C-alpha cells in the first residue's frame, strides 16, 4: 500500500475498504499478505484485515502515513460447488428479472412506470407456466399417454411396463397413468418454491441499516408501490431509487410472487389433467357425474388462474420504507388451495373408466402456441410503453434507445422456449425409436416445438452476419489504432510493430463490449419474427403432432425436416454444453471471469419480476458494506475510502447511496475497471443513467474513477466537473505502463486489461488525493450502549 495523508491524532485513522469484482478474490490476494484475520462476517461474506492491523484503531501513530487496508470478500455469494451450476437452468427467469430494471427514466409518469412493471411481471408469469407445461408435455403426454399407451414403446422400456395397457395392471388406465405422471411437474414446482424460499433466507434476508436518518419524503410516489417512483434523482432532493430504505429488502413482493407462481405451476398441471379427462367424459356414454365434475374443475382452475394474474398485477415493489410485513394469508392460502385443487383433479382423473384408451396426443397442444402469442403480445406492449416513457432529453448512449427491457424480455421468452422445447423434442426422439421401428404410431411433441427447433439453425445463420461484421471491424480498428498507440507512447517513429499491434488489438477487442446492444437487438428482433413464423407454420399444419410440415412442397418439407432434426440435436448439445460450461465456471476462476460479468450483472438486481430467479447477492452485500461503513465511521470518527474494482465498484456505489448524509461526508469513493456507466448506465438508465451518476457524485464527499482503453469491462463514468467538484474520471491509464524496456521497467510490461489496477502508480496517487479531500477526523467517541452486533468496533473478532 502506498503512503496516504497522515491521520490526525485524535482517532484519526483512515480506512481503505477494498471490494473485489467478478471472478472473486481471496483476502490474502486482496491484502497482499498470507496472514489475514476475519474481522466480522461469516463464511459466505466477511471483512478481513492483515493480522498486524487487527488493533489498528488503538495504534494511530503506526498509521499516520497510510490507511488501514480492509477487504470485503463476497465471492461465495455467487460461487460454490459444482451443484451451483444448476442455477443456470433458471437463466430465463433471471433474464426476465433483468428486463424489469431496464426501463427508461420517467420522472413524473407513474402510471406508465407501473404499467411497465406489470407487463414484465406478466411475462415472467408466462415463463413459469411454460416451464410447467413443458414438464407436463414430457411426463404426461410423451411418457404416460403416448409411450406407455403404445405396447411397443412400453415393452421396450421396462420401467414403463407396469403402465402398459397390455398388462392390464392397476396403473394401466389412462387417467391413472396421467395422475401418476403428474407427480413429476408437481415436484418440479415444489422444488422451485423450496429453492426460492431457501435462497431468500440464506442470501437476501438482510435488513439494511435503520435509525441513522429519517425517511426522505418522495412527493408523487405511491406509499406502497415504488413502481410509481423514478429511479433517478428528482427535484427537491428526492432520494434516488438505490438509496431508498426498502430497495434492498424486497421480502413482501418476493413472497407474494412466490405464492402466485407456485400456484400457477400447480394450476397448469391441474389444467392438463382436467382437460384430458373432461374431454373423454364429455364424449363417453354413461359418464354420469364425471360429465359435470370435469367442467366444474376446469372452471375452478380458470378462476384460480385469473386470481393469480390479479395477484401478480396488483402490487409492485415497496421501496420508500423498509417493509417487513408479509401477506401470510395470501402466501399460504393461494399455493395451498391450488395444490388442493390439483389433488382433486388427480382423484377425478384416477376414476375407473372402462374402455378409455390413449391414442394420438393429449389435448392442449395448442396451449404452447397460445403461450407464444401471449408472450409476443406482452413484449410488443412492453416496447410501446418503453417508447412512451422516453424523455425528450434521452441519453444517446442508452442501449437500444431505451428498448433494452423489451429486447431482453424477448430473449427470456426465447430461452425458455428453446430449453423447454428442446427437452421435449429430445425426449420424443428418444421414446420414438421403438414405435417407429415396429411400425407403431409416432411419438411426437406438439407441432410448435418442432417448428421452433427448425428455426434455430436459421437464427444461427442470421447471427453469422453481424458476428462476421464485428470481427472485420475489430481487425480494421486495430490497424487504425497503430498510429494512436505510437503517439500515446511517443515512440518518435521507432516503435516496434509487434508491440504496437498487441496494444492496438487489445484496445480494439475491448471496444467490442460497446457493440453488445447491436447483437442483442438483432437476436431479439430475429427471435420475434421467427417465433411468429413458427406459430403460423404450426397453425397451418393443423397442430397435428408428427405432421409438422405436411402440406408443404416436398423439397420444402424435406429441408424443414432436416433443419428440425439439426435444431433438435443442437438444442440437446447446447443444453449439455450449457450445464458443463456453467459447472466449470463455478469451479475454474479463469472460466468464471469469462462469463462472470454477465452472471453477476443478472444476479445483482433484486427479484422484482420472477421469484424463481437466482438469488440477489447484493441484498446481502450492500447491507454488509453499508453497516460496516456506518459503524466504523461512527465509532472512530475517521475517514474512509471505499475502493471497488469491477462489479465491486457497483456494490460500493449502491452502498454509498444507502449511507446517511452524515456518514457520506466522511466517505470517498474510488472505482477502477468499473462498468457503472459502460454497462449499467447504458442498460439500466433509470438507476445508473447520467442524472443518477451525477447525483451520486454530489452525494458522496469525493469520487475518482480509473480506467484503461484495453479494459473490456470497465470504462469512464462520464461525470463532468460540477459545482466546484472536479471531473470524476482520471486521465486514461496507459496499458501497458511502459511501451518498451526502460530503467524503471527493464523487462517487458504485460497488457493488464481489466486486472491489477492497484499495480499502477496512479492508484496510490488517486487514493491519497481522495483522503486529502475528506473532512478532518473527529474526536473518537465510544457509545457504551453500542453492541457488538451493531458492528460498532473495528476490532470485533471473526
TrEMBL record:
Keyword Signal: no
UniProt region (Disordered), positions on chain: 211-240, 774-798
Polar residues compositional bias, start-end: 789-798
Keyword terms: Membrane, Transmembrane, Transmembrane helix
Protein name according to UniProt: Integral membrane protein
Annotated InterPro entries: AB_hydrolase_fold (IPR029058)
Recorded superkingdom: Bacteria
